[in-house]
Amino acid sequence: MLLSLQCASAQMIVHDEQKEKQWRSMETGPWDFAPDWWYYMFHKNYSGAYLTWKWRGFHSKLGVDFKESKSNVKTIMPVRTAAELEQVAKMKKVEEERQKVEPLFKEAVALEADRMVDLVYGNFKDDFNRMQESISDGLIYCLRKSKGKMSYQVNHLQKRNDIICRNIEYIHTTGLQYGLENAKREKAYNEYKQSMADLVSEVSHLVGIAQRYY
User: Fold this and answer.
1) What tens digit of pLDDT does each residue of 83-121 get?
2) Fewer CB within 10 Å of terminal CB in the chain, N or C?
3) Alpha-carbon distance 127 to 194, whole Å?
4) Each residue of 28-63: pLDDT tens digit?
5) SS3 string of 95-140?
6) Quick one: DSSP state of residue 65?
7) Number of other CB atoms surrounding residue 63 within 10 Å
8) Beta strand pairing call for 61-66 and 49-54
9) Of 76-85, 104-113, 126-135, 203-212, which range is least confident?
10) Whether the bond into 30 is cis, omega within 30 of 0
11) 211 or 98: which carries more pLDDT confidence?
């Protein structure tokens, strides 16, 4: 029976407050050791123990306190805490990179959205239609007036007009495979508008010839 009690006593977990304070101080803080006077007398250097007057009213007395700044050793940061700080540093770096890339990404998205919709064709549509009517009516008149004798000149001007119309159609086409921003579309439309206007003048000149000679 006595042996059983001794074994049970040997297996009991004994809470050592002094060791707990020492481990906690060396690992995470707060900086505190026990027994305080013993650390002041024999381990002042690494414990950072110093004398201070502890006010407790009528029970005020000289006592021992501890400061990490007075110690020649410092708190040992746990591996888990160091890993957490490293992770925070990595996340901060990622956020900094994201802030650098985000404006470029937004600009790319805006450009892609700009390519998907033709916002300027409406400003040229009526002029294109009007000039196409003039070209078509003029060329038909020349063929009829000359009874087909001006077909060479008519076909030549018609081919040039077809090229201009195909190019305008391509510029007006939108979608993922077409990478033209609206500013570039507008510039191209202005160029083709001028080409179409020049063609209208040539057709008008051909109409004048048909009226004069046929």
Assistant:
1) 676 777 777 777 777 666 666 556 555 555 566 688 889
2) N
3) 11
4) 667 778 887 788 888 777 777 888 877 777 777 778
5) HHHHHHHHHHHHHHHHHHHHHHCCCCCHHHHHHHHHHHHHHHHHHH
6) E
7) 13
8) antiparallel
9) 104-113
10) yes
11) 211
- Residue appearing with tokens 């202005």: 190
Tokens standing for 169? 């159609």
Domain boundaries, the chain: 16-70, 79-116, 118-213
Nearest CA to 186 among 134, 131, 123? 123
| Residues 106 and 173: beta-carbon distance below 8 Å | no
Site of tokens 């020349």: 142
3-state secondary structure of 183: helix
Tokens of 144: 């009829």
